[in-house]
Amino acid sequence: MHLMDHPNVISLKHRFFSTTSADELFLNLVMEYVPESMYRVSKFYSNTNQSMPLIYVKLYMHQIFRGLAYIHTVPGGCHKDLKPQNILVDPLTHQVKICDFGSAKVLVKGEANISHICSLFYRAPELMFGATEYTTSIDIWSAGCVLAELLLGQVYVIAFLLLLKWCK
């Protein structure tokens, strides 16, 4: 994480360890501040019965794909939990930053991974079918779900329900 340096990926400013009275060790990460999440921006529009302006959808998605392209330059680098809550937005500049790398992993070809990752509404079909070998394309599927949500003003439930039906 500390090696990532891209305008559309959250940056790590500082890290330090702390302990509790029970001698538990905690890693603390200090990230750059970005005031809003894509989730809250999207909810603003849907709560006011407005569609997000198409120019913003295009601007945001361009930046999301730029950030993913950078993350994917690390061979096998995969976010594995892309969703509006893990995309930050500066409402003044409209700059987007991908954050929350808690599920991120470098995928190794031939190595099994867990399939129950990624939030359900943004989970790729191969994960829904229980695949343990997958590629960074799962991030692209998630980004497509984010795009649909920004355009529709709600989670793209129809695609999700179809996937659930296929999995039965």
Automatic annotation (TrEMBL):
<keyword id="KW-1133">Transmembrane helix</keyword>
<keyword id="KW-0812">Transmembrane</keyword>
<feature type="transmembrane region" description="Helical">
    <location>
        <begin position="140"/>
        <end position="164"/>
    </location>
</feature>
<keyword id="KW-0418">Kinase</keyword>
<dbReference type="InterPro" id="IPR050591">
    <property type="entry name" value="GSK-3"/>
</dbReference>
<keyword id="KW-0472">Membrane</keyword>
<protein>
    <recommendedName>
        <fullName>Protein kinase domain-containing protein</fullName>
    </recommendedName>
</protein>
<dbReference type="GO" id="GO:0004674">
    <property type="term" value="F:protein serine/threonine kinase activity"/>
</dbReference>
<dbReference type="InterPro" id="IPR000719">
    <property type="entry name" value="Prot_kinase_dom"/>
</dbReference>
<keyword id="KW-0067">ATP-binding</keyword>
<keyword id="KW-0547">Nucleotide-binding</keyword>
<dbReference type="InterPro" id="IPR011009">
    <property type="entry name" value="Kinase-like_dom_sf"/>
</dbReference>
<dbReference type="Pfam" id="PF00069">
    <property type="entry name" value="Pkinase"/>
</dbReference>
<feature type="domain" description="Protein kinase">
    <location>
        <begin position="1"/>
        <end position="168"/>
    </location>
</feature>
<dbReference type="GO" id="GO:0005524">
    <property type="term" value="F:ATP binding"/>
</dbReference>
<comment type="similarity">
    <text>Belongs to the protein kinase superfamily. CMGC Ser/Thr protein kinase family. GSK-3 subfamily.</text>
</comment>
<keyword id="KW-0723">Serine/threonine-protein kinase</keyword>
<keyword id="KW-0808">Transferase</keyword>
